[in-house]
Amino acid sequence: MINFDQPELVSESVRRVVAAVRADVPVSQVK
Amino acid sequence: MLCAALAAGWVYENVAEILDTRRYPPPGIMVSVGGHKLDLFCEGTGTPTVVLEMGSGEPALLFRPVQDKIAQSTRACSYDRPGIGWSEASELRTIQDRAAELRSLLTDGEVVGPYVLVAHSYGGLIVRDLFHNHSVDIRGLVLVDTAEEGVVFRPDFLEAIKQAISTRWKDELSARVGIRRLRFVLMQGQFGIRKDLFGDIRGEMIDFFSNPSFVRAITDEAHSYLLVPDDMRRPLGFGALNNLPLIVVRHGQPSDSILLPLGISSRNCGQRDRNGWQNCQRTVRSSSLRGADT
User: Fold this and answer.
1) Which residues, in sequence order, are CB contacts of B81 under 8 Å at separation 6+?
2) For chain B, which end, N or C, has fewer CB atoms within 10 Å of the first or last residue's CB respectively?
């Protein structure tokens, strides 16, 4: 249930949200 | 004889705490919030600032690999709630109290917004309350297997919490006389302090999980579920997230390995039914019109 052992999964999701915030677009538009 | 053993255990525990305080200093700064100090660790530069909110009883140090990765591209901050990790204990009661304290920490710790919040498990309810009830400039969320109202307020889950709380005094007593620490030191693998997961931070984890203030903190956090008003104990009872950019991260395989030292099995968290857990995470995702999941 915990993703400590999958840090890439969480950090990649954060990267997408941060990029969406910076570009002011929906997350779905960020690769 | 018993009194002598308890006294020796008390001395052992207190000496161990003093030694570990010297051995493992906090990596960040200690910020005074409401009469106690919370440990705050920030790294990286850029905007928005990413703030990590942990699950119940989880020291922020556990998420350090994630934070380090995030900090390569923007500012990333984490902290420990009261009684956990390096943070001092306090008398917080409700989830709303914890959201208000996070807001104070961001202000008093000079953590500059706008923010993207990353929450795990219990922390999800805190950041959702922060979004709804505090004027904090939150621009996006990442929710990692967060608590969902339809699951965590089920009668069987609440009953499990009540049972755990009712026996917590034994854990607190064993912590105060060093028995809990000794068990962690001697039987690390059995209590979830796995080398492959914790690596170089096993010493810190044993100190955190053994500490009497930690036992009290997780009891208080568990009790906070019982204090949530009835009208919030339903799917999306903590409110919708409107158009907030959101990604929901769901686990692949259920695991008890880390929750066991906390005394609550993931089977009590509605995860025995894997499909049920996946469905409730979809409910979390639906809280935002701009939600996505992994």
Assistant:
1) B38, B54, B87, B92, B98, B101, B217, B221
2) N
Domain ranges of chain B: 2-293
Written as six digits, the tokens of B276 are 């049920």
Contact B50 A8 (CB under 8 A): no
Set of chain B residues whose Cβ sits within 8 Å of the Cβ of A10: 63, 66, 118, 142, 144, 249
CB pair distance less than 8 Å for A13 and B116: no
Average pLDDT over residues B56-79: 93
pTM: 0.88
Judged by a CB distance cut-off of 8 A, whether residue A2 touches chain B is: yes
Confidence band of B189 (pLDDT split at 50, 70, 90): low
- Which structure tokens are listed for B266? 């993931």
Q: Give the list of residues 6+ apart from residue B256 with CB closer than 8 angstroms, or none.
A: B192, B265, B266, B267
pLDDT at B198: 66
CA distance B40 to B149: 29
When computed from its CA atoms, the radius of gyration of chain B, rounded to whole angstroms, is: 19
Type of residue found at B34:
G
pLDDT of residue B50: 98
